[in-house]
Design a protein that fits this description.
Largest sheet: 8 strands, antiparallel
Structural class: mainly beta
Radius of gyration: 15 Å
Shape: globular
Number of domains: 1
Order of helices and strands: EEEEEEEEEEEEEHEE
CATH architecture: Sandwich
Protein name: DUF1349 domain-containing protein
CATH class: Mainly Beta
Organism: Streptomyces calidiresistens
Strand content: over 45%
CATH topology: Jelly Rolls
Length: about 210
């Protein structure tokens, strides 16, 4: 199996999902390019077929951690996004997205999937970049986003109950790009960093 080593990560990533996505590591940056009509979403109303998308994910070390990256996305179509992903199974995963809204505004968005997906818009973003952070703290997960990489807004605090899906195997974390309504999308992640601890207070902006 092909592995991808990304500067800033202490564990390798592997390609999963279909259709696959192209990837390139240049310097400290990871660039993912996905094709047309690609998404990872299970509509709670059952109006669409289950979807899948190529991604790069890996198993982080045991214990608490935070994974951060700055995302830049070549927005063209609604719901184009660069994503940090927690993936525990076919119907159990969560996305932290820098996404193009139907109003054609870059937006911080989260999706948590346990059987079906939800969809929660957080805040609109001025500019072409957004810092994203995934934290594991005990049995829980937290999603934060930041416009400057210093002050972090808590967007979601949740559990995937991944043991129910994986039989005790750890969830994988990583990156994806999506283009549900468009002809493809490229997302670049840089300033990637892994910290083997969680913030002491998830809600104080640190």
């Amino acid at each position: 199996m092909t592995t991808v080593n990304v500067p800033g990560l202490p564990f390798p990533l592997v390609p999963e999902g279909a259709p696959g996505c192209a990837h390139e590591v240049t310097g400290d940056a990871l660039r993912l390019t996905t094709g047309a009509r690609t998404d990872l979403f299970l509509d709670p109303a059952g109006l669409t077929d289950p979807s899948d998308v190529g991604r790069l994910v890996g198993v982080p070390p045991e214990g608490d951690f935070s994974l951060t990256a700055r995302a830049r996305v070549g927005f063209a179509s609604t719901y184009d996004a660069g994503v940090l992903l927690v993936h525990a199974g076919e119907r159990r995963w969560a996305k932290l997205c820098f996404e193009y809204s139907p109003q054609r505004v870059p937006t911080a968005v989260t999706v948590v999937t346990r059987g079906t997906s939800d969809d929660a818009n957080a805040f609109e973003v001025e500019g072409d970049a957004l810092w994203l952070r995934v934290t594991r703290t005990g049995a829980a997960w937290a999603f934060h986003a930041s416009t400057d990489g210093r002050w972090w807004r808590l967007l979601r605090y949740f559990s995937l109950h991944e043991a129910e899906e994986t039989g005790g195997k750890p969830a994988r974390v990583g990156f994806l790009a999506q283009s549900p309504t468009g002809e493809g999308c490229a997302a670049t992640f840089d300033r990637i960093a892994f910290t083997p601890s969680a913030p002491t207070d998830l809600r104080d902006g640190s």
